[in-house]
Specification:
By secondary structure, the chain is an alpha+beta fold. About 40% of the residues lie in helices and about 25% in strands. A hairpin with a 2-residue loop joins strand 10 and strand 11. Belongs to the FemABX family.
Length: about 375
């Protein structure tokens, strides 16, 4: 493909979308056709970029209708899936975005939001430990990164120049997908090496689960009611609003139909009693820990640690390069309850990763501003 060739964007079938995903090392599970089925309150469409008749990029576009008008916000969570390294190096981002903008505009979109799964910065484990121990450091953004990527830097500059609105800095979890996540690199490692990278508490908890007789197994759709029972108990204990059972039932049906390995349910039993459960999602070489739950009783047998270790081992055995523990916040302050989350994940020996984040382009500034105000009032 030459740089001067013209790209077009049009809808593609789910089969075309799945086939395109299979040709890449990985894309976000939020960019699979199955995720469009899961998000029933959004209208979803699979689209592709074509160079003549060759499919060169894909995206799942979700449309959220604005109240009282027949216009929508177009949203591409953790996507689209294109060769971002080549786009950034060529400096031709607008060549890819222009046909996408025209396509969603024709579908009635008043604004477009996208959040490419492009890494901008990484902080290694030792750097994070030192930052958490320093009372003068309150935010991750104030800590010099160990790695800054050329692709992330170039894309941020190009989006800014094209008039896109950057993600706002926030101290907690914002709406949309997390900009900061915690990942455990797996490439070139074996289980012994990963285990050695855990801190003493993680290793002790895994050993305790084993000595206590915790048994981890794979569940099926028939186990979803028990998973949801423990998940609802976790939500009540930890004071968050649980998703309804129908959500997980729909997610299981959609994602396992897309690909059998896409979603798995792990169950930890102790003396025949379910004490913890979790789901793992995988696309290509990227595995994500998505939902976790544990009972209030028998927490001392460390079923949750046993499940995490089993999921990491399975990800390793299947050739994954990353085990993703998903979102963390920007906070490093001990006075913030979110600091405990990063401390827990830090024990795996992994690293903090910053993505490019979600960028917005108002197509109709008036409608975009009104919708933005409406969403802020709702939250």
């Amino acid at each position: 493909m030459t740089r001067s060739s013209t790209l077009t964007v049009r809808e593609i079938t789910s089969d075309q979308h799945v086939a395109a995903i299979a040709e890449r090392p990985s894309v976000s599970f939020l960019q699979t056709p199955a995720w469009g089925v899961v998000k029933r309150d959004w209208r979803s469409r699979s689209v592709g970029w074509f160079d003549d008749d060759k499919l060169v990029g894909v995206a799942l576009v979700l449309y959220r209708k604005a109240p009282r008008i027949r216009r929508s916000l177009a949203y591409i969570p953790e996507g689209p899936s294109i060769d971002w390294d080549s786009v950034a190096a060529a400096g031709d981002l607008q060549r890819w975005l222009a046909p996408l903008i025209e396509h969603v505009k024709a579908q009635g979109a008043f604004g477009l939001r996208l959040g490419p799964m492009v890494v901008t910065r990484r902080w290694h484990n030792a750097t994070l430990k030192n930052a958490l121990a320093d009372p003068g450091i309150a935010r991750l953004r104030d800590v010099p990164a160990d790695e800054t990527t050329a692709t992330g830097t170039a894309l941020a500059e190009q989006l800014t120049a094209l008039g896109w609105r950057p993600p706002a800095a926030t101290d907690g979890f914002a709406a949309g997908q997390p900009r900061h996540v915690f990942q455990l690199p797996l490439e070139g490692r074996d289980a012994d090496d990963v285990l050695k990278g855990f801190n003493q508490l993680w290793r002790r908890n895994i050993k305790k689960a084993d000595k206590s007789g915790v048994v981890v197994s794979l569940g099926t759709a028939a186990d979803l009611p028990e998973f949801h029972r423990v998940y609802a108990e976790t939500a009540q204990r930890d004071d968050f609003t649980p998703r309804p059972y129908a959500y997980f039932e729909g997610m299981w049906a959609a994602m396992t139909a897309d690909a059998p390995e896409r979603l798995r349910l792990y169950l930890a039993h102790h003396e025949g009693e379910l004490v913890a459960a979790a789901t793992m999602t995988r696309v290509g070489t990227h595995a994500w820990y998505s939902y976790g739950a544990s009972t209030t009783t028998k927490r001392d047998v460390r079923g949750s640690n046993a499940i995490q270790w089993r999921m990491m081992q399975d990800a390793l055995a299947e050739g994954c390069s990353v085990y993703d523990l998903r979102g963390i916040t920007d906070t490093l302050s001990e006075n913030d309850p979110h600091a405990g989350l990063i401390r827990f994940k830090l024990g795996t020996g992994g690293q903090a990763v910053e993505y490019l984040g979600e960028w917005d382009l108002p197509i109709s500034r008036v409608l975009y501003s009104a919708f933005d105000l409406y969403m802020k009032r709702r939250s």
